[in-house]
Amino acid sequence: MAEEIKITFPDGSTKAFPKGISGEEVAKSISERLLNDAVAVKIDGEPKDLYIPIDKDCELKIMTSREDESIDIYRHTTAHLLANAVKELFPESKIAIGPTIEDGFYYDFDRETPFTPSDLEKIEEKMVEISKRALPIRREEMTWQEAKELFEKENEPYKAELAYEKGQNGKVSIYRQGEFTDFCRGPHLTNTSKIKEGTFKLLSIAGAYWKGDEKNKMLQRIYGTSFFSKKELQEYLKKIEEAKERDHRKLGKELDLFSVSEEVGGGLILWHPKGAMVRKLIEDFWRDEHLKSGYEFVYTPHVGKSALWETSGHLDFYKENMYPSMEMEHQTFYTKPMNCPFHVMIYKSRHRSYRELPLRWAELGTVYRYEKSGVLHGLMRVRGFTQDDAHLFVPPDKMEEEVIGVINFTLKMLKAFGFEEFTAYIATKPEKAVGETQRWEDATKALQRAAQNARISYEFDEGGGAFYGPKIDIKIKDALRRDWQLSTVQFDFNLPEKFQLEFIASDNRPHRPYMIHRALLGSLERFFGILIENFKGAFPLWLSPEQIRIMPIADRHVSYAEKLSTQFKSRNLRVSVDSRTEKINLKIREAQLEKIPYMLIVGDKEIESETVSVRTRSGGDRGGKKISEFLEDVERRIHEKDLNLE
Asked: Which fold has domain 541-639?
C-alpha cells in the first residue's frame, strides 16, 4: 500500500492522500472547476507552485483568483511572459529585473535601440502567441555557481550578477518556459496559456538605472498590468484614462495654477496667482480652525547652525536629504529639512511650568529636502514645500487626551475638503529604539484608543515606527478610490532627551514632557495636487480662485456688468467681467474650460429687470434670478463650505 500523508484544509477538515501528490491533483480531486481556477497552493502558509509534490502532513490551501495574493502571482508570470516575448523579438536585449508593483509589473531591459510605442504593440502580439503555446512553466533549484554559469552562457550579465548576490546563503531558483529562463523565487502559474488574451496590457516605457543607482547603466523599463478577467482590465484602463484627465500637472498648466522652471530648479514650485489664491484660502481656513482648537502660531527661520542639526540628529540620520552647508563668518549653516528643532528651541527659551502645558504650536513652515531628479513629480514630490506642521509639548497625564484631540481635529479638517473615507496605520516599536519601554507602550495604546474614539479602521505596522517613537498615519481615498497618506501623528522620545526639555510639575520637580509631531494636510504643495486631481480642477465654490464671471452680451451692457462686479467684490466674492466683443457662446465655453462655478449673462432683459441669467460650469442653465436671491444662495454655499461642484 502506498504511503499516505494527511492534508488539513482551511475549513478544518482532513483527508489522506498518497505521498508525493501535487496541489494540482488535490484541486482536481475536489472539482474540475477548482482545478481550472487554481493559481498556486499554500503549504503550511507558504505559497508554492501547484505541481510541487507534497511529501508530508501539512495544512493546504488552494489559492484561486478570488484571493488578493493570487493577482501578484498572475502578474509576476505575465512579467516573465513579457521578457520572453522581448527576447524572441529582440534577442540582443539583456534582461534585468521584472517585479510586480502596485496594480501591475515592470521589466528592465538593456538594449541599445530605444523601445517605441509600436514595439509595445508587437511585444503584446508576441505575448499572446507565446501564451497560446501553453508552454509549461517549471521551477528548478541549483547552486548560485550553476545559475551564474547558466546566465553567463546565455549572455545575461544582470541575471548572473543577481545569482551571485542572492545565492550566497544557499541555493537559488530559476523558472523555465520553453527556451526562456529567468532567475526567480516564484511561485508562478503552471503554463503560459493560463494568461488569457485580453487580460494584460503594456502601458509605458521609461528609463531606470540598474539597481536604482545613477552611477550604473540606464536601462529601459516597460510597465504593464494584468488581471484575471478582461472586464477588470478594461475597468482599470478606464481608470488610468480618467487619472490622466485629472493629472494635476496637466490641469495645473491648463488652469494656470502653478509651474516648475528648470531655470529656477526642479522640484521648486512657482505658484501662479490662481493657484496662490487657492493656497491662501486653504491657509486662512487652516489658521482659523487651529485658533479654534487651541493652537498658537510660531514662525521660524529657513536656516540654522550646524550645531542645532547635530544635536537633533539630522546630520547623522538625514544628511543625504539636506541641502549642502553654507559657510558664513566661520560658521556653518544648513537650510532646514524640518521645523521641529526650532520649535524645541522656542520651548527652551525659558522655564516651563505644568500649568502652561499642553503647548500646541503650529507653523506653515517651508522646508527643503534634496530629492533626486528621477523621483520628482509635479506637486507630489518636490524639493521645497510648506508643511502644515505643529508640535505639542504634553505632560504624560495629558498625553492620551491630546492624541484623541489631534485625531478628531485631523478628520474634521480633511472632511471639510470632501474626504470621507479614512484608514489609520499604527506603527509600533522597531528593534532599535530610544525611550523607555513603558512610554512606547503607553503611546501606542493612546494612538489605538484615539483611532477607536474617532471610529476609523486601523491596522498595525509592527516594528514600523521610527526609532524615536510610534506614530499613526491616516490615509484618505480620493474620487478615483486611490489612497493618499496625508496626516501623521508622531511621538518623539528622542528630541526631549537630546535637548534636555523639562517642565516643573506640581511636585516642584523637573519632568520630561512628551513631544508630538503632527501634520494634518502633509504639505501644502502635495495637498494642492491631490485636491486638483480629486476635484478634476473644478474646485468647490469656496475654494475656486474665480467664483463668478459676468458676461455682457453687447458693449451697451458692460457698465451694468461692471456695476455688478463692484457690488459682488464689496461682499468679498471673486468675480471678473468678460467685456470682450466675442460671441456669448464662446465666452461661456471658455469659462467652462476654466472651470469657473458661475457664469452670469447680462443683456437688455436683465438690465430692465435687475436680474442675472445664471449658468454653471457643467452647462446647466439656472435661468434668471434676482441679484439679491443669487447673492444669498452663493454666500450661503460659501459659508457652509458646500462641496457640491455645481
From this structure: Rossmann fold (3.40.50)
Which percentage of the chain shows pLDDT scores above 70? 99
pLDDT tens digits, residue range 136-150?
A: 999 999 888 888 899
Q: Catalytic: which of 290, 360, 471, 518?
A: 471
Is position 340 annotated as part of the catalytic site? yes
369 is a catalytic site residue: yes
Strand intervals (E) in 193-289 = 200-209, 218-226, 258-260, 269-271
Q: CATH classification of 4-64 is 3.10.20.30, yes or no?
A: yes
Q: What is the mean pLDDT of residues 344-371?
A: 94
List pLDDT tens digits, range 586-633: 999 999 999 999 999 999 999 999 999 999 998 788 889 999 999 999
Superfamily of domain 69-245: Threonyl-trna Synthetase; Chain A, domain 2 (3.30.980.10)
Q: Where do the domains of the chain lie?
A: 4-64, 69-245, 265-299+353-535, 541-639
Q: Tens digits of per-residue pLDDT, 406-449?
A: 999 999 999 999 998 898 999 988 888 877 888 888 888 888 88
| Of the candidates 352, 355, 397, the residue with the CA atom closest to the CA atom of residue 501 | 352
- 23-56 in b/e form (b: 16+ CB < 10 A) is bbbbbeeeeeeebebbbbbbbeeebbbbbbebee
Report the share of the chain in percent with pLDDT over 90.
71
- Decide if 471 is catalytic: yes
- The helix/strand/coil state of 282 is helix
3-state secondary structure 34-54: HHHHEEEEEECCEEECCCCEE
Catalytic residue among 80, 87, 517, 574: 517
Q: Is 391 a catalytic residue?
A: yes
Query: What homologous superfamily is domain 265-299+353-535 in, according to CATH?
Result: Bira Bifunctional Protein; Domain 2 (3.30.930.10)
Q: Which of 148, 369, 549, 617 is catalytic?
A: 369
The whole-number pLDDT of residue 2 equals: 67
Catalytic residue among 387, 448, 490, 547: 387
